[in-house]
Design brief:
CATH topology of the largest domain: Outer membrane efflux proteins (OEP)
Low-confidence stretches: none
Number of strands: 6
Number of domains: 2
Largest sheet: 4 strands, antiparallel
Helix content: 55-70%
Strand order of the largest sheet: 1-4-5-6
Strand content: 5-15%
Radius of gyration: 39 Å
CATH superfamily of the largest domain: Outer membrane efflux proteins (OEP)
CATH architecture of the largest domain: Up-down Bundle
Number of helices: 10
């Protein structure tokens, strides 16, 4: 008979549990996750190739062997406000991880409460409102004391808390990758500005040479016009060229100041915090495209890694949203002393012990859980589409920069030949002048087109250097995280 009774109780418990589980809120609709980008879309066209092959190194700017550039980038990576903001976001994400992880741990608190109260005669403890010492009622005023230790523990059976913690870890990893992306942005921007300044320095040198030519031309034509050997129009033509060169010099000087102020703001330097930048020769550009692009680009680009981690975190949020549909369990406990009179508080009779296992079943929630799941799924799909577009943009950046570098390389080669051809005319005029066969003015006039074409060549050299830095940025600047996160859509 006892065995039958135990069996009946067990069956009743199983039936009750099934009924409880079946009474949970139901998932009405959950759409499928968006699809990730196809691998073949992460390849470059076959007609885009550069002479050298390889990925940029972590400290890629040291390849230029320029101590000034090294110091400026190091200062930016140390003091730039944008990087401070990114690192603060990382610290905030770490705190969120700790907060999410703490939710599944044992929570305990010690407390003491003193309550001076007037008892209502019509309330739950109405008899204590009377003053009958013989019965132990000394009301209606009481000074209640409560002292003890309380604890609670959420039992994460369905993994809701674990999923929320995993989502927080994913966001933290994304913030770390974003900080690396800011470092890459800073280093490439500093390099671009630095070589913009150096290009302007070199431009000023050429313009100063051109100004010497135009100054002499104005003087020579003016002297001839004064003697009636030439019309005055030639003087004014020479002066117009002189003024044009002077205008270009002023523009170049202003460009240097603009670049310096942009650099100062970028690295967070004060009025005296930016060291002087001395002119140096422009380095020879050495652009390179790695042959195995494809998925390797995903690990090299910190912005793409950040997006992948955000997507992975969104999957964990979906898991947490699904787990919210199932019953939750917790255990609360209390041990302490509770008495209506402080004089009785710490007596054996005032001891109180509570042990409260709890089961919570979401039955009717007005659609809140389904709306939460729908929002988590929509947010995840949006992140996946953003990631797909970011991958396409990354490949486009590499392709466009590589194509531009190819075109600039060919233009520089042609411009160098053009300068050599025009320089032959200049050298011939100089030789005629040295032999007394022509005037100095003729020899100097022959220098003008050479200097003008050297300015064009300098402009192309500055552009190809800037595009090389842009390519380094498009390739991730030597950033190398762990292999790309493996997606597990849920």
């Amino acid at each position: 008979m006892k065995a039958i009774g135990k069996r009946q109780k067990r069956v009743c418990w199983i039936v009750a549990l099934c009924c409880a589980l079946s009474s949970c809120a139901l998932i009405h609709e959950d759409s499928a996750p968006a699809s990730a980008i196809a691998p073949e879309q992460i390849n470059l066209a076959d007609d885009i190739h550069l002479a050298r092959d390889g990925w940029p190194a972590a400290r890629w700017w040291t390849r230029y062997h320029d101590a000034q550039l090294d110091a400026l980038i190091d200062q930016a990576l140390r003091d730039a406000p944008t990087l401070t903001i990114a690192r603060t976001r990382v610290a905030q994400a770490k705190s969120d991880v700790a907060l999410a992880a703490a939710g599944s741990n044992l929570q305990a608190v010690a407390f003491g409460v003193v309550d001076r109260e007037h008892v209502s005669a019509n309330g739950f403890i109405g008899p204590f409102a009377m003053n009958e010492p013989a019965l132990g009622f000394t009301g209606p005023w009481y000074t209640e004391g409560l002292v003890g230790v309380g604890a609670s523990l959420d039992i994460d059976i369905w993994g809701k808390q674990r999923a929320q913690t995993a989502a927080s870890i994913g966001v933290n990893n994304a913030r770390l990758a974003e900080a690396s992306a800011v470092e890459l942005e800073l280093s490439t921007d500093v390099a671009q500005l630095y070589y913009g300044i150096q290009t302007s320095y070199r431009l000023l040198e050429l313009l100063n040479q051109l100004q010497q030519v135009t100054d002499f031309a104005v003087q020579a034509h003016d002297a001839r016009a004064m003697r009636g050997l030439e019309p005055r129009t030639l003087v004014e033509d020479a002066r117009a060229q002189q003024l044009a060169v002077q205008r270009q010099i002023v523009s170049a000087q202003d460009q240097i100041r603009q670049f310096r102020e942009s650099m100062r703001a970028l690295i967070g330097a004060g009025p005296e915090g930016l060291p002087p930048i001395e002119p140096v020769a422009l380095p020879e550009a050495q652009p390179a495209l790695p042959s195995p692009l494809a998925y390797e680009l995903l690990a090299r680009r910190p912005d793409l890694q950040a997006l992948r981690w955000y997507v992975q975190a969104s999957f964990d949020r979906i898991d947490a949203a699904k787990a919210a549909f199932y019953p939750s369990f917790d255990i609360k406990a209390f041990f302490g002393y509770n008495a209506l009179h402080l004089s009785d508080l710490f007596t054996h009779a005032s001891q109180q012990i509570n042990l409260i296992p709890g089961l919570y079943l979401p039955i009717f929630d007005g659609g809140r859980l389904n709306a939460n799941l729908s929002g988590a799924r929509a947010g995840s799909n949006l992140l996946i589409e953003q990631y797909n577009q970011a991958v396409l943009n990354a490949v486009r950046d590499v392709a466009q920069t590589g194509s531009r570098l190819q075109a600039l390389d060919e233009q520089i080669r042609l411009q160098q030949r053009r300068v050599e051809s025009i320089a032959f005319t200049r050298d011939s005029a100089q030789a005629h002048y040295q032999r007394g066969l022509s005037s100095r003015l003729t020899a100097l006039d022959a220098r003008q087109p050479v200097i003008s074409e050297q300015v064009v060549l300098l402009t192309l050299s500055g552009q190809i250097l800037g595009q090389e830095i842009a390519l380094i940025k498009a390739l991730g600047g030597g950033y190398r995280a762990d292999p790309p996160v493996e997606w597990k859509p849920r």
